[in-house]
Amino acid sequence: MLNKMGYVRVGAFVPQMKVADIKYNCQEIVKGVIESDKLGIQVLCFPELCITGYTCQDLFYNTDLLKQVKVAIQDLCDKTRNLNITYIVGAPIAVDNRLYNTAVVIQAGKILGVVPKKYIPNSNEFYERRWFSTIDENTPTQILLNNNIVPFGDDIIFMDSEQGFRFGIEICEDLWGVKPQSDDLALNGAQVIFNLSSSDDYVSKNEYRYNLVKMQSSKLMSGYVYVSSGVNESTTDLIFGGDTMIFENGKLLIRDDNYQFSSKIIYNDIDIDYINATRIKNSTFSCTKIDRKCRKIAFKLSNLESEVLSRQYSKTPFVPNENVENICNQILNMQSFALAKRLLATNTKSVVIGVSGGLDSTLALIVINKTFDILKLDKSNIIAVTMGGFGTSNRTASNATKLINLIGATYKNISIVSACKQHFVDIGLSDGDRSVTFENAQARERTQILMDLGNLYNAIVVGTGDLSELALGFCTYNGDHMSGYSVNAGVPKTLVKYIIDYVANSDDRLKDTLIDILQSPISPELLPLDNGNVIQKTEEVVGDYELNDFFLYHFISRQSTVQKIIFIACQTFNKDEKFIKTRLREFLRRFYNNQFKRSCMPDGIKVGSVSLSPRGDFRMSSDTSYNLWTDLI
To answer: What is the pLDDT of residue 532?
Structure first.
């Protein structure tokens, strides 16, 4: 099931071990392979030189030790012959009077290939050149190992053509080198890199190692599985921590850097379709010359029958899962400096904004307030307007007024009721009509007021609409859809809430008002109230914003298929498939039908991984059909 969705389950295993006790080490490796196979892991990686231990030192010269390594490799093949899991172990192997630090790839009792380490460190605490040779023009491309001729070299990619999965291997220093081996592997199509490592620990190295792996995964747009030797290695002069981590396109999926003497395992499901889509979209891969061709070694990836992902997707993918305060502050700075630049470029010292007491206009006013602080402008030049209509509630009107006064903006209250009633008479709209005409006329009346005030005060009208509304087309064309500059155009609704909450917790003056705004129902407040109560709830019309933002992120940012979106949404939100399909079909219908609104949207910056600006990330014809996608649901 998961393979059909484009996932491959990968793992990293740090076994218990004893230095130079090959028989014991292989027993532990076999245990790890069996355990991993039961977990559905398809490709498993062990640490560097795990068969002998990395810290054997001059014992690597010992003839008995080297002979037993070959015996051990055969023993591993024999004891895992009935398993389809592919696994990678580290071993010293002698070839033509040279000793190589290698990774041996085994599946179903067969050695698929052997990859030697390219960069042999010989500085600081590392003395590998004392024992191991680097590869050069004299290195053979195949070797005889246990009576089998197997591929040998650092130019090997293991490929399952049926599922389109390809992985490559580098060993420890190969990543730390000036030109990492994984660069060539990725350019030749490897979607996942496995790194067998023995990286010792000292103060600050843990963070550096993490950042190195993260950056390589991000740069290559690849999965990256890193596993290092554990504390059972010799501690004569060094300590090894057994750091293990799995990344996908620069995002950490799982990590275990805790010290422990017992074996430990991590695993996760890497989205190969996402990696492929990212590379296709990014021109780096298409325009980078491939200096070195890699050999493709065919193998058959084991089936992943599980219907349950080993990874968890966030319900709010646009919201950071760490450093939330710092990122919210960064976004506010981006929005504020972007608006400041527009004011400087137009030599404008005043802005006009409609403030409703809802989330979006609140965030926009916060941004304006920060912009005026940056430019040291008089806050009285912020013309903040409330424009009560047929559905305006006392709660939102009160919060809007409080917020404007707390910021120190110039407050204007202009009712749109009389103007709209006259307009309804002019166009012949009956008194009881509550259609979209009734609603949109109010939005357009408000925009007219704001634009005219902009002319009156020589000011820019700042738009308040967010990314989620743009995606759904939930904005009135030539109404709230239009402005002089749209500060929230790159911010989805779910993130708007977090930013406002961040401001509430960092500004005591605004806190009570902002919290009440956060707790108010999301509504355009266009339909008349029922005994003072808001009867119009946005999410009852367009669906839950949390789910819509989830769809938007996976559809645009990750380029996921509709079937994958349905699959992961069901698991993430614990909803039945019928409900998710209904909501996704409606999202797609709205998304495609409203491209015309995005084709002429105002300027506004990108702040995250998704932008719908026709001048930025996203280009699509306004009359594109959505049938291809909805037919797949």
So the answer is: 79
